[in-house]
Amino acid sequence: MTIDITTAGLHADAVRSLRDWSVADADQEQLRLDYLAHLDAHPDGLWRSCLPAHITASAVVVDPSAGRVLLTLHPKVGIWLQMGGHCEPGDGTLAAAALREATEESGIAGLELLTADGLPTPVKLDRHRVRCTGKDQPENTHLDVQYVALAPAGAEALISEESLDLRWFAYDRLPELTDSSVRELVTLARGLTG
Question: Which Gene Ontology terms cover its molecular function (predicted)?
Answer without folding.
Answer: hydrolase activity
